[in-house]
Each structure stands twice: as C-alpha cells, then as structure tokens.
Amino acid sequence: MTTLVHGTDTLTRDALTVLQPGFVGTTAPDWLLRRIGEGLSSVGLFGRNIVSPEQLTALTAQLRAERDDVLVAIDEEGGDVTRLEVKQGSSFPGNYALGSVDDVELTRAVARELGRRLAACGVDLNWAPSADVNSNAENPVIGVRSFGPDPDLVARHTVAYVDGLQGVGVAACTKHFPGHGDTNVDSHDALPRIDVDLATLHARELVPFRAAVAAGTKAVMSAHILLSALDPHRPATLSPQILTGLLRQELGFEGLIVTDGMEMQAVAATYGIERGSVLAIAAGADAICVGGGLCDEDTVLQLRDALVTAVRTGELPEERLADAAARVRALAAWTQAHRARGAESVSGAAVQEGTAPGADIGLVAARRALKVTRGEWPYTPVTSAPYVASFTPVANFAVGDETPWGIAAELERLLPGTETGSYADSSVDALLAAAGERRIVAVVRDAHRHAWMTEALDALVAARPDTVVVEMGLNEAEPRGALHIATHGAARVCGRAAAEAVAGTGA
To answer: Most buried residue among 240, 245, 421, 472 by CB atoms closer than 10 A?
Structure first.
C-alpha cells in the first residue's frame, strides 16, 4: 500500500471528513456511527429523519455521543422548504415573504428564532439562506425561496439572516453560489445554463454573495449551474475558476464551501457522483453534500474511496484534500465552542417594536407579509364554512410533496365545517358542483406559471364573482376575485394569516 505524505490512515480520515451524507431513519444506523468513529465529521438531516423536537434532540445527542464535534447539518429555510416541520408546515414564512415586508430587523429576528430552535435540538449548520436573486419569474426551483428580484434587497436580507442564525451559534450556509435565480431549469433534473455577461453577473447575481462574505457567513453552497461568462465548460460546483478564482480569491471567502446535492442530475447525469466529488474538491469545494436521494453506507464508501484513489493517482492533490478537511474541522470547532457557551448571546439585542424574537415571530412576519387587494365585486368576510378549492401544481424536489400547504386547515379552525377539494386542470364544473351554495376560496401557487390555473381562475370568477383568491407562490399574476390575498409563500403561518383575512379576524 502506497504511503503518502500524511499516511494512509490520515488520508482516509480526510476523505471521510469532507463528506456530508444523509441516512434513513429517526435514529442513527450502526454504519453511520461506525464511520463517524473513523473520521466522518458531518451528517445531513432531511425530513425523513425528523418527527419531533424531542426525537431530533435525542438523535443529535446519539451522534455526538460518538464524536462531540460532529457537524449536524439541515436544509431548513423556513417557508416552503422545511425539515423541522415537514409534516405540519413551517412556523416561519420564507424569504419571499420577508423580502416583501423589507424590514431587516424582522428578518434577523425570524432567523434568530429559527436558529434558536435548531440549536436547541443540536443542529449547528443550516444550508440556508438562499441568496439567489430571482430575476426570472419562470424559475421552477427558486421562486419564493428568494427574497426577491432586486439584488440590493436580497443582499441586505441575506446579511440579516446570516446574522440571525450565527448569533445563536448556528452556522449559515449561503446558497446557491454564484446565483440560481436567472433560470427556468431545475438543477435537480438537468443542468441550467445562464448566458449573461460578466457585468450583469457582478451587478446582479454576485451582489448578495459579496455582502454575505463581508458579513462573515461561515459557509457557502455552490450551485450546479453553468455560467458561460465564468466557465463555459463546467458547472460552478466543479469549476476552479468559480470556486477558487472567484469565491476564494476575488471575494475573499475563507470559510467552508459546500456543494449542492451531488446526486442531482445537473452533475450526476454527466459526471457521476464519484468523479463529480473528486472534481468538486479539486475545484475548491471543501464538503460534499449527498443524501437527499442516495443515503446509504455504500454511497459514503464509494465517495471516500474515489477521493483516496484520486489522491493516490495524482488527480487530486493531497494538500487540497487536507485543506478541505481542515476547513470542515475549523467550522466544527466554531460550532462546538458556541454549544459550550450556550449561544444565547443575542437575547438582549435591541430590535424594532413588534419584531422581538419569540415563539410567535413567524406569525407576526406572515401577517405583515400579506397583500390584500379588493376587486370590483363588493366583498364581505366569509362568516360561514366555505369551500376551499386548491389548484395544485407539481411540487419541485427541494420543497417536496410531504409538507402540507394551503389554508383549508386554518379556515376549518376558524370556520368549522369548511370543506375542500384539490384540482389540477382548467375545468371548474366539478368544483362548482362540489361547492354548491358555499362561498368559494380558491388557493393557487404560482398562477402565472400555469396556464391551466389561470384559465380555471378566470372561469371560476366569472361564474362566482364573490370568490376569494389566495396566491401562495410568486405574486406575479393580475389580482382576481372579490378579494385577492397574496401570502408570498406557502408556509403554515402564511396559511393562517390568509385564513384570518378571509374570515375578517386578522390580528
């Protein structure tokens, strides 16, 4: 066996250290604990791993009983993308709602409370916030996960979010570098390509990331997108020009560079996860995120062995792998120090009235994010049990289809007897028959992107002018209905705020 500069054992440990794998189950499997003992330094959690705060706390304690400095990461954006509350819907509105309010202290308070809950459960690395400038309203994967289409707005709220999370000891991972907003392709499915010039990239995509780096974000997640002006050959995750040249050297980022999920088709379909991981580390990434789809021991061993082999053959410099592993350990030490101190250092920070951190800050924010537009038809609040018609598009991979959305459950709480139905085509005959004499509340998500949804709304409002329309995605379509409510996201608290507006009981 070839002996390298640090020895084979150290090489293997470094290869394990740079992996951030997932697993199946609500307790840690034996194979995962064994690999943590051998050097695995990070674990990624998804909705399938979480059923309650108590269970999550026990899980992270189980991981740290094996190794106290293990990084426990999660994809918890709040809003539409939640893992903490995957079965219930989030207690916090997402970025689009916060950007629509445009109160950075509110954003900071929401992120701080979300971070406090993560820290209380033992989670110390959050793959958030999304700093993408959603300049393309047809974007199928970013949308309400972005603070909005304006670079400066996205920048100031990204900074506030990073401050909120890291103030309570949870490392922020600002994503998806160098910007996933100007595309109509989901990188879970294929490789998006953005063909704009360098001047546009610097004036738009890179503005929030520069701000996040200056604010001290502990981590940055790369995007599986091809930006021809920066690298016409490889996606950002695999590009030395983008990760080392732009992010490290030009922007001066010294923290942890994490890849987006390595099994996503934008990389896996062309390079495979093993070669993709080697190329990513060689390009300047420090941690390989994998586990959203591939979440077994074989995947960990394949990636470990691919990295070790690449060092032995000279394809991957050993110093680059060692540097990546050192950055993982440095972040683990930072989070471990915060856990030891309790990490409640911001509890006395001054904030604006109405934005103090607390259990209800998410609902406060959701209520403030509502935009209510009255139509020409005279509107009176819904005071008896209505019929809720949910026009349901296919969920993207990041959001998933496990998390409930809409306002029917919240209206049922306010107006017992509320009935609901789900629809996925432009015909409204069945809907009208099911509703009968009840008031109709139509709930949509990104109506501007779905022609069938627009047709259905037009037909419904023509037949029943007193219809209430609730838009829970991007608020791009013209308001329809006697009352149009834009929630700027589909979190559970957004549904509650909308239900209050429908029933005329808003706080």
So the answer is: 472
